[in-house]
Amino acid sequence: MQTLTYFTLSFNKLTGSIPSSLSNLTNLGTIHLDRNRLSRSIPESFGHFRKVSRLYLSHNELSEKIPSSLGNMDFATIDLPRNKLFVDLSRNLLEFDILKVEFSKSLTWMDLNHNKIWGKLPVGLAAFEYFQVFNVSYNSLCRNIPVGAYLQKLDDKSFFIIVACVVLLLHPAKSSVCGRIRCFICVCSRTCMNNGFMGTSDPL
Q1: N- to C-terminal Cα distance for the chain?
Q2: What is the pLDDT of residue 36?
Q3: 16's torsion region: left (phi>0), alpha (psi -120 to 50) or beta?
Q4: What pLDDT, in 10s, does the model give residues 107-145?
Q5: Secondary structure of 97-165 in HEC code, one letter for each residue
Q6: Which of 20, 90, 91, 110 has a beta carbon 3.0–4.6 Å from 43's, enabling a disulfide?
Q7: Vertex 155 angle, CA 153 and 157, to 5°
Q8: What's the pLDDT band for 56 if we cut at 50, 70, 90?
Q9: CA angle 144, 148, 152 (to 5 degrees)
């Protein structure tokens, strides 16, 4: 097994967690575990492969945070859509127009705070059923926060965070908000901070 370079078990009905021991196969270059029913987290050990450049884990039931160790890897391809992963890309120097990003509809947790992201939040985010946390604070976003069925169902006990526009009364010096905010947004569920949203936030 130590000489194995290509590992594929795609399009099966595998369940349970991904074994961390796969990282002991030091000659692996490609891993295909996509389109199964694998759950729990991506192993932290996956950031310690020596040669893996292509990792395919899409269309499973993976959850929890993407391990920070993956940042040590120089992937040519990393395929993660159609899971329920928590994505933490906060406090980097990422620069892009968020309107051009295609988010997975199964995403539950994403943290993009303290970057250099600009643009308007996609209206389609309002229809995402599984979002619990979406943190885009301390960026340069603008215009209105999208509203929709699933966002409106979130209550004060939810963990959903839009963290997008500054509430003028709290942070007047840091705000570039235009227009008015018709309701006070509860810090627990929809915190709005340090961006440039404009217009009116409808009652939720």
Answers
A1: 56
A2: 96
A3: left
A4: 777 888 888 888 888 888 777 777 777 778 788 877 666
A5: EHHHCCCCCCCCEEECCCCCCEEECCHHHHHCCCCCEEECCCCEEECCCCCCHHHHHCCCCCCCCCCCC
A6: 20
A7: 140
A8: very high
A9: 105
